Amino acid sequence: xxxxxxxxxxxxxxxxxxxxxxxxxxxxxxxxxxxxxxxxxxxxxxxxxxxxxxxxxxxxxxxxxxxxxxxxxxxxxxxxxxxxxxxxxxxxxxxxxxxxxxx
Length: 103
Hints:
alpha+beta
């Protein structure tokens, strides 16, 4: 994916694996690619599964970016998320916010 074509990004990605270093590298790569469209620091939020509210995660995903074309919201530890929250996240992934789906 070219760094100058941010429209190629999908609204939702699932990155999974057992090696934390590789997961962190994948997130860092996304952050690097997204930095071509603006300041990622203002547009990056991370949550921990099991302790984060699914409503907070979805609200972060629905928040418009600030001085950037995109936002990056990361939820670590998806395996610690309860079934009801997983359903809410899956529902969001199937039909993301209209403001988010075009960017």
